[in-house]
Here is the input.
Amino acid sequence: MQSLDAQISLLDDQIKALAEQLPAITFLKSIPGIGDTLAAIILGEIGDIERFANAKQLMAFSGIDPSVKQSGNFVRTKNKVTKRGSPFLRHALYIAATTSIRKESKGSQVNSVIYEYYQRKIETKTKKQALGAVMNKLLRIISRY
Here is the structure.
């Protein structure tokens, strides 16, 4: 166990050293709620952001875009996310979203802008739907890079 822990620690240090050389990592870490590990996972899963023309393509790639259910004139209004993209990216965005809306130990918000956005969404949506909206918001912020 100790040998494996040492190897994992060594790999984490190597990933951190390589990630610090990339300007995209610096941008991702500047977003409150995204740290070293999440920034590396997000960038590793997205790859070159230039291959996405807009944020909607990036949302589809991550699998957090809404599915469409229709038959004839019927169009379903309560749709789920497609989950057709990268599960690792989706999970990293979920962790970043939950981290962004929580409070620090001193009582201040981790990311006050995202928290206010979440509070506005909670007024009309369920908490899970609002969290999905926060994930979309974070992805739109990332796509601006």
User: Anything to note?
Assistant: The chain is about 60% helix and 5% strand. The longest helix spans residues 2-19. The radius of gyration is 17 Å. Helices lie at 2-19, 23-29, 36-46, 55-62, 87-100, 112-122, 127-143.
